[in-house]
Amino acid sequence: MAADKKRGIQTVRDMVISLAVIVLAAGVIYQFIPHDEGKDPVKPVSYDIEVKSARRAAPYPVAAPEGLSKKWRATSVRYTAGQGPEGSRWHLGFMTPDDEYAAVEQSDAKRPERYVRDITQGAEKTARTERIGGTEWVRYEGAKYDALVRKPDADSKASTVVTGTAPFKQLRQLAGALEARKVQVPSTPPSTPSDKAASGQAAG
């Protein structure tokens, strides 16, 4: 019995020693592997093509920033077409120079207030407004996101929201950089009987 007990103690001790050796070896290997500690963990995305496509497809002028510094890194972009009450939606998300989140959101939803509430994570409308680039924006404040909101008008026909965890100073900067445009897709004129006849003669 004593021999078995001694053998068991030695086995446990050997396991502990082996584990310590493995941990030590792993630490040594890690020290010799090069690490880029200064590498930005955020993976920026390009959105030029998406903006052009959305401006052709959306029923309203699509807003995207121009002239922001490279420290503003786009992280997400999407356009979702819709015909129901939710409307067509445009989203362009950024990480700010301070690593806060800020996004441009647009929709021609039938119920703008509900859309704004959903997209801002429940931010509440305040009595404060801000004049940015000649346009009036309503200030919203919330526990998670703050926002600047521009309601639909005769020109845009869509709610435009700049929202996120970024402070209002950066939300204003993003709102001020926005350019809203719509690309008109040329329509093909209907063919006339004379066109069809000419086409038939050319084929003959």
UniProtKB/TrEMBL annotation:
<dbReference type="Pfam" id="PF14030">
    <property type="entry name" value="DUF4245"/>
</dbReference>
<feature type="transmembrane region" description="Helical">
    <location>
        <begin position="12"/>
        <end position="33"/>
    </location>
</feature>
<dbReference type="InterPro" id="IPR025339">
    <property type="entry name" value="DUF4245"/>
</dbReference>
<protein>
    <submittedName>
        <fullName>DUF4245 domain-containing protein</fullName>
    </submittedName>
</protein>
<keyword id="KW-0472">Membrane</keyword>
<keyword id="KW-1133">Transmembrane helix</keyword>
<keyword id="KW-0812">Transmembrane</keyword>
<feature type="region of interest" description="Disordered">
    <location>
        <begin position="180"/>
        <end position="204"/>
    </location>
</feature>
